[in-house]
Amino acid sequence: MLRLARALKSRVGFADGERGVTLVELMVATGILMVAVVPAFTFLSAQQRTANILEQTARQQQQARYGLSVFGRSIRGAGYPAGYSYIDSSMFNYAATSDVSVYSDVNNDHTTELVRYWLDTTTHKVMRSVTGPDCASPPCDYTAGLWTKTAPLVSDVRNNSTAGCGATSPPTPLFAYFTVDPGTGAQTPIATPGGNVNNLVDINYVSLALVVDVTPGRSPTFQCLKSGVQLRNWRP
Q1: Residue 104 and residue 93: Cα distance in Å, rounded?
Q2: Residue 18 lies in a domain
């Protein structure tokens, strides 16, 4: 029987004169381990959250700046619809605080397309559509057009639900329109151009304000990016 007891001790790792780890010792060792491990995990988790916030902030800025760049090129290079001039047309087809249509050669194919930018409040995206004119019978017809391509330009746009860029309450205007005096440089706002040609012909400067937030209610908070574009082909 004594031989059997010694054999069992040997199998479980205890030799004569040795004893096992008590529950108290195990709890003390676990506590010491937790004191070392928990702060390390807390630090790593905080670092990960910070990295995610920085990444999302950079993404917000990147997509907003891209949208500003595309919009700026379209407006800066705006012209008159094919077959028309400043005598009988404006560079804009429609202009509102969240919806604008302008004539511009965005494809660099020497044909002036009709370009529209608008805020889709359901998807929180600024959309862009380009319509190619039907020029079979001059002057060119933009109403039906030969083709239209539509795609999102900027995502996570919160102009309609967030007060930003100087607005005291939502919605934050996406577009604002001005007449700039060529001599003095003074800007006169054109509040509601809509489809009124008498107001549309006066627009020679457009400002854009984007309120972008990829994580509403959490960090990073919304960012406001602004841009202003003067029409280089405008004629008074």
Answers
A1: 11
A2: no
Q: Is residue 131 part of a domain?
A: yes
Q: What is the pLDDT of residue 8?
A: 44
Question: Three-class SS of residue 230?
Answer: strand
Task: Answer yes or no: is 113 within a domain.
Answer: yes
- Other Cβ atoms closer than 10 A to 56: 17
Q: Indicate the helix (H) or strand (E) that contains 1.
A: none
CA torsion sign for 98, 150, 55, 50 is: positive
Separation of alpha carbons 6 and 21, rounded Å: 19
pLDDT tens-place string over residues 114-170: 999 999 999 999 999 999 999 888 888 998 889 999 999 999 999 998 888 888 889
Calpha distance 92→89 (Å, rounded):
8
Count how many domains the chain has.
1
CA dihedral 93, 99, 102, 105 (to 10 degrees): -140
The reported pTM is: 0.76
